[in-house]
Amino acid sequence: MSTLANAMDVLKLIARLRRDITVTDVVTELGLPKSSASRTLSMMASYGFLDRDAATRAYRPGGVIMEASYHFRASRNAASLVEDALDSLVAETRFTGYINVLDGTDTLVIQMRAGAGALQIYTPPGSRAPAYSSAMGRALLARMSDAEVTALLGGRLDQGRGDAPRTRKDLLARLAVIRETGWALSRGEYVTNVAGISAAVFDPATRQAYAFGIALPSELLTDALVERFGTVVRDAAASVGKRVGDPYWLAFGASVP
User: Fold this and answer.
1) What are the distances in angstroms from CA 10 to CA 49, 171, 215?
2) What pTM was estimated for this model as a whole?
3) CA 102/CA 128 separation, integer angstroms
4) pLDDT above 60 (res 73)
């Protein structure tokens, strides 16, 4: 493996562990020989990519990385990155795309991008739906703990249609799947015959979570299409999440190529 590839893996490791790292961490987590780990860290420190704590001898991001990070965050916030990701999703899938946020117990549409295909779904900004009854809402709820979800929604789930969860147990089971897979699916649960595939990103700087994804006619869904677009939406969210330091996506990325 090249020195540059090793350096990339070291920076990803710091982002994932969210702390200073040692030679032992690099050996254990990345499987590098101790000599290679030590050489990589020393070289990165010599070029300003890492700083070394004089007391603990552990490494943290150096001046070069911090300056680049500051420039990135100053020029691109999470909201703009999510909008760019949505534009790419709509262009790739040709289906209408949305960005939603959680507003109380509802999910609220704040952005819409019309698809280019013949079949389009139209739910304008400002539209609301019970959070538990849509892919957007459940993607956002999945970023909360079960206790937080229960406190927010209570036990009544009686506004959904079709395949919407009817009990707290059913909802929490679906949220567990979303946390594992990284994306959410709905099938005509609030808007009849409309399906949704969504994922969520949390911006630690603003404490705001955004769900984004696509809407499409339910009759078009096949297992293969669901898996394909679920992966596409998940990967788009993971890319944004890693850039803004979303802890969920930083950890998720350790197990997803």
Assistant:
1) 10, 38, 38
2) 0.70
3) 10
4) no
